[in-house]
Amino acid sequence: MNDRIKSKLTALPTKSGVYVMKNKDGIVIYVGKAKNLKNRVSQYFRSSPKPSKVQAMVENIDDFEYFITISERDALALENNLIKKYQPHYNILLKDSKTFPYIAINMNDPFPKLQVVRKVGKPGWKYFGPYFAGLNAGEIVKTANSAFGLRTCNLKISETSKAKRECLNYSLGLCSAPCTKKIDYLEYQNKIKKVINFLSGNDEEIEEILNKKMQIASDNENFESAIVYRERLKMVNKLKQRVVANLPKNVNKDVFAYVNDGLNGVITSMVLRGGKILGVLNYTINDASLEENQTLFNFLTQYYENMIVPEEIILSHDLDDKDLLLSFWKKTTKLIVNPHGINSTLLKMANENAKEFLEKHIEKNKIKYASTIGALERLKTSLNLPTLPIRMECYDISHISGTNKVASMVVFVNGEPAKNQYRKFKIKHVKGSNDFASLKEALGRRLARLKEGLSESFKVTPDLIIIDGGKGQLSSCQEVLKEFNMNLPMIALAKRIEEVYMPHHENPILLKPGSAELKLLQRIRDEAHRFAITFHRQVRTKAQTHSELEEISGLGKKKIETLLNAFGSIEQIKKASIEELCILPGIHEALAHQIIEHFKKDNL
Question: Is the pTM of this model over 0.85?
Answer without folding.
Answer: no
